[in-house]
Design brief:
Elements (H helix, E strand, L loop, with lengths): L10 H10 L12 H17 L9 H18 L2 H19 L4 H10 L5 E8 L2 E8 H7 L14 E2 L2 E4 L1 H20 L11 H21 L18 H11 L6 H13 L4 H8 L7 H11 L14 H6 L16 H13 L1
Antiparallel strand pairs: 1-2, 2-4, 3-4
Helix pairs in contact: 2-3, 2-4, 2-8, 3-8, 4-7, 11-12
Bound molecules: iron/sulfur cluster.
Length: about 350
């Protein structure tokens, strides 16, 4: 299959690695040195650029370096690093799949993810759709909190959701991201004896990531004891901060809500930017531009407010409202009321 080195996550690539019967001990031999080198490179590209490059010089190196990278990350056990790698690898696959033939996307979804997908050529309201996916499989893979992906906004025929090619590639990206994150989070057995070459690679990756990791810090430092009280945050904002703490990839609306809320209660652009360093696809210049934009320093020069409670409900971002929520229609009103009550 011509996509094997491009897509080392597919079933065939995994079977190929399994058939080779490579043991941990084998990884210490000179033969696997380029594979370990490429695995480190994959992680370095994820840390530095937020996307892994596709390299096709040696298919064996490309296929085998992928599980080695996951092994290194599971040994390190840092959820932020694992999440960043998962996003970077999944993004690479998305951009490749957009250029691939439809049959390749079909094959991957059916054989690697066991989704019910088939080819169509259907026009609905002026848009031509190339694929149909069974709605349960669609719901499993759909990106969270993005209104365009809600089932209610999708053309649906006999239980199948119609998709364009870039949309199916996006679903594969999301499914792959989750799969990689889950593989990286598997705790290795304490009995596992790693060859020196792999131990060295792990130390190098930790060293490489250290400056990025140190800047992330802890959310509990959020102006503790200062003018901002996390205790007074509404449940929706606390939930978004919890997701950020766990290194989850927040959808656009969630990021907008969090950034505008924090800026409007008095956090500085740099403080908000530092919080967003936790997002797995963090890109400093892009994030700074977006935060400055919603703070009213760029573009239209409008300082944005967070969305109202009713908008957040529509986007599925009103999480576990408490009894205090029944008295407000806006997260900022919740915060202001709670702060006033706290001062009494
Ligand atoms: S009701 Fe409003 S303030 Fe309360 S959790 Fe929902 S969106 Fe947030």
């Amino acid at each position: 299959m011509k996509t094997l080195p491009n897509t080392p996550f597919v079933k065939e690539a995994q079977e190929y690695v399994r058939r080779r019967g490579i043991s941990l001990e084998d990884l210490g031999s000179d033969y696997f040195r380029p594979m370990i080198q490429r695995a480190k490179e994959r992680i370095r590209e994820a840390i530095k650029y937020g996307i892994v490059r596709t390299v096709l010089e040696d298919p064996d190196v490309e296929i085998i370096s992928y599980p080695i990278a996951i092994l290194i990350l599971s040994q390190i056990g840092d959820p932020f690093l694992s999440a960043r790698y998962a996003v970077a690898e999944a993004k690479r696959v998305n951009s490749l799949l957009r250029e691939e033939e439809d049959s390749v996307l079909l094959y991957i979804t059916q054989h690697t993810f066991q989704w019910k997908v088939f080819k169509v050529s259907t026009k609905v309201m002026g848009r031509t759709y190339a694929f149909a996916i069974y709605f349960r499989d669609y719901l499993r893979g759909v990106p969270r909190g993005e209104i365009a992906w809600k089932l209610i906004n999708r053309p649906l025929i006999d239980g199948y959701v119609l998709l364009q090619k870039y949309e199916l590639a996006r679903l594969i990206e999301e499914a792959l991201r989750k799969r990689i994150e889950s593989l990286c989070s598997e705790r290795p057995s304490s009995e596992m004896r790693l060859p020196t070459a792999l131990e060295k690679a792990i130390e190098e990756v930790i060293e490489l990531y250290r400056p990025y990791r140190e800047r992330i810090g802890s959310l509990s430092e959020l102006r503790a004891g200062g003018s901002i009280s996390r205790e007074a945050f509404p449940p929706c904002i606390k939930a978004l901060l919890d997701d950020l703490e766990r290194g989850k990839n927040l959808p656009h609306m969630a990021r907008f809500t969090l950034a505008t809320f924090l800026l409007n209660i008095g956090m500085s652009i740099d403080e908000v930017l530092d919080l967003f360093r936790r997002t797995p696809d963090f890109n400093e210049s892009k994030a700074r531009y977006q935060i400055e934009h919603v703070a009213g320093l760029r573009g239209s020069k409008i300082k944005y407010l967070p969305p109202s409670c009713s908008t957040l409900k529509t986007f599925g971002l009103c999480t576990s409202p408490d009894e205090f929520c029944s008295r407000v229609r806006h997260p900022l009103a919740y915060y202001a009321k709670k702060m006033r009550r706290g001062r009494k």
